[in-house]
């Protein structure tokens, strides 16, 4: 674990200092931390978002007593093609530590891997937008593709398949940005590669953001903002297949409740959240997740 946190600390620190040193002063809106959002991106504008997500899973029902710690530094670049069309490129870097007991020798194995994750490209197009004096309501379908750009050493986090995803996201704000609700549902079709086919995934999220500071907006000027965030994040996965045979110890469903906090200035947003599993219905013998902790930032680029 010292290996993972040392590498992550260096990577996140260097990236944060570089990005924050080049950005101009631009106003930013709140957004959920673990969910999608339908708010617009200005035409010709870029948004860069980076999150470090630490997943810990230690509840292994087998004698292997497997323990997993994985940190994904997920970097997202967004480009506004038009006021309605936004393009997303998501490129993660992953650190993974696995500990387990060797069934033949009884000795503990401690293995570390790190490398580039799979690249995901997404397009989102707003088909409904209604703005009113104190808020907005928007809905946008989206579609994307996952490309096998990741390091083989990180399988099964990375895969050799080309996968497709489609879904939709909606956002409603009111009371001059004090309240925001976001909801999305995304289905990912995972294809076969090298005799392995991961089960298809269904992602669904519901998020609520509440501005606690300032309680009343000033008549002049744009202050800093503090938001409390509450989310429900769900994943349902079908069983995977290897050489045409179903893997019984795969797939299932997880539902997280995810409190978080965001601090927004004219230049950037800082955010943190912890996802706590309240439902874990996994097939067969799989290691259950303890938590997922996320910390990150988001900036508008020139």
How would you describe what is shown here?
This protein is mainly beta and 302 residues long. Helix content is 7%, strand content 59%. The protein has 1 helix and 18 strands. The protein has one helix at residues 2-22, and strands at residues 46-59, 67-80, 85-101, 108-116, 119-125, 128-132, 135-147, 163-174, 179-189, 192-193, 196-197, 201-213, 225-237, 241-242, 245-246, 252-264, 268-282, 288-301. Strand 10 (192-193) and strand 11 form a beta hairpin. It is globular. Mean pLDDT is 88; it is low at 1-6 and 9-27.
Please summarize what this structure is.
The protein has 302 residues and is mainly beta. Helix content is 7%, strand content 59%. The chain has a single domain, classed as Lipocalin (Beta Barrel).
Topology of this protein?
Layout: H1 2-22, E1 46-59, E2 67-80, E3 85-101, E4 108-116, E5 119-125, E6 128-132, E7 135-147, E8 163-174, E9 179-189, E10 192-193, E11 196-197, E12 201-213, E13 225-237, E14 241-242, E15 245-246, E16 252-264, E17 268-282, E18 288-301
Antiparallel strand pairs: 1-2, 1-18, 2-3, 3-4, 3-5, 5-7, 6-7, 7-8, 8-9, 9-12, 10-11, 11-14, 12-13, 13-16, 14-15, 16-17, 17-18
How are strands sequenced across the largest beta sheet? 1-2-3-5-7-8-9-12-13-16-17-18
CATH topology: Lipocalin
Number of strands: 18
Strand content: over 45%
Output the radius of gyration. 20 Å
Secondary-structure class: mainly beta
Number of domains: 1
Mean pLDDT: 88
Q: Which H/E pattern describes the elements?
A: HEEEEEEEEEEEEEEEEEE
Estimate percent helicity. under 10%
